[in-house]
Amino acid sequence: MIRKLITAGALVAAMTAPALADPIEGAWKTQAGDNAMISSCGSSFCIKLTSGDYSGKSIGKMKADGSGKYSGSITKPSTGKTYSGSGKLSGNKLKMTGCVLKILCESQTWNKL
What we know:
Residues 64-85 are annotated as: Disordered. Helix content is 13%, strand content 54%. It is mainly β.
């Protein structure tokens, strides 16, 4: 009886795991018009461009801070330079920001596809 309950519990957990994906995961349209994919990679989220001149290039890695906020690093694909990065999720929009010394910042708003 206990073995059946454990097996049933494991099956339910396996079936609901995809439903527990973080809202940042998925396909996004960048402000520049390229597509990007954000996916789980260990305890972080990796960002990779999937269209445009820099398709296939990894451009960031962030961790969830809670309540739709993320922090880590972001790489500007045109220069290859990596900056302190952050993201703030609001519905189907993601505001991505990269900063040098926390004073010189550049932001883009991405839309979920």
